């Protein structure tokens, strides 16, 4: 007999057979002699053990009187059915059970000595409240449907987990209140029904041990393995969140229960219709394996690996079944597939297509190490689970498409999160109207009255540096070729070699002058078409061949030219851009906390950024001009931090490069419009175009009346046009000088006139480069005002 109580219960449980004994007493008084005599004989034995009538709390009495109790229960446990029924005496929800049928005994024996039978997913909380519900139902006559399905999960002799549905019969039980019980009103009962999870409330109305549960119950089990396993699989597949598929071991256990095969394993592959390939979903790579694609991540579905074996699966959408892989390998023309399966110890398998609306989504793989375990007969069981797998894979594909679209939106378009809401609203309008009208006209995405902020950190003299590295590499390559030709011994090609040497020397001399637009392409084409064929086809001595070999080793794989100095320059440019963009992106996250605004940046020969702030971008949040001032101060601080980042990085660069910083101040609000053809925002209107003109030309401008550029290395240049802007930025500079971020000296000058634009002025100030980035803490506009006041 299994005995295990939960720690607390509203019941004091007493096992009693008094109701059966009363029925024996009635039979003893009947006129049917054999029935009467049998009843009297049983009653004589019962009288020797009065606890069978009054109640048993010492469970050893049950164990000592198993034979008598079996006879008392004989009418409820017919001998003819003992090998068929799964039945025992129990107390509902408690692990008290005895008087098992022979089939029940066999099931428990096969489970092993260490197995302990307990209700699946049944907590102490549920145990207590379910007992309380018994009282409400049987004593207070409340119609409460609390009998959810209960299951025992019991392994068989092969280790396959079987699932048994539990049914209780409580006809031989009675519920009795004690002096400690609480008399409930209908209001109390209503309160309990509305508060299932409030265990303290239930315990206050049904104190521990305040009721007596007297009698016994009967538990009957029926094998619901297939139905339960499908339900578990459905729960695992349909639950939300990233872990929609459990580990392959857990899924295999479920299929083992459905097919009653202890060695069954499950795999899965997805079909990609665009490329007509089978792929292993990377998202579940560690959770669900594949036996068809054990080595490759993907394979063409028309690949010779599958041969004609998969024609039914692909064309007719029917399962492909191999009941004996060894025999299949010997007799089939597709030995490659058979050998692939045998290497994995697979002797029988089913590959079933998963189909939605006539389209192939993927293939479920069932494999076993035993021949004929899987066959065309039990393959029909897949019809029970394929609908759930179909929904799961369809949802996986939909989720994947949504994530891909999100990645495209995040990585490849300029729809910043701050303005995404407006695109979404317009898309919703289209979606809601697309079934009502054929010609829906998209509204233009425009944000009016926004304030622009523009800034950049530019690589100083990048074009000159690039040209210089090109010239160095070209000279090195031409010199290497001339060295090879100088070592060539006279032969029949002497005249041709002399001509080529002359041409190479002429090209090298050209590089002493400024580089022309087509010089690099001209030299590259000449070397590839005229020189390389000679080197590859001319046989020379060992030294010549060694020089040629060393020359070809120095060529870049992509360009086919020397790419040493240019590589250093390109790498330095890439490192600077990446590091500075990282700083800007990180600081931009902080800036969004000031006030939501549109942000975009570009990597060119440096890093540029545009910001637009205004009420139209975030209509749910009140806008104040103070947010613009905060953002301007943030921008100036951020450029200081980017300058310091470059200064710390400079010494470790493969090619030394300096940077210049610039801020363009524009105080008039403007409108920005999303250009559908370019898929980006641009300023709107003729007047506002002036701002774009200044942006494009200002960094190459000179100080008025001189040949000196307005930008200079390690300095920040602030270009403006109004006195109020000048006063505002001088406050910021003064404050940052006070914080030892900017040097004390300030330069102020006029900017030369641009085409259609005049009257611009500038402030230039140097960043103190011997401080650490960590010293530039976030300073708000209010901080500045507080300190200045």
From TrEMBL:
InterPro entries: GAF-like_dom_sf (IPR029016). It comes from the Bacteria. The lineage of its organism: Bacteria, Pseudomonadati, Bacteroidota, Flavobacteriia, Flavobacteriales. It comes from Flavobacterium ginsenosidimutans. This is GAF domain-containing protein.
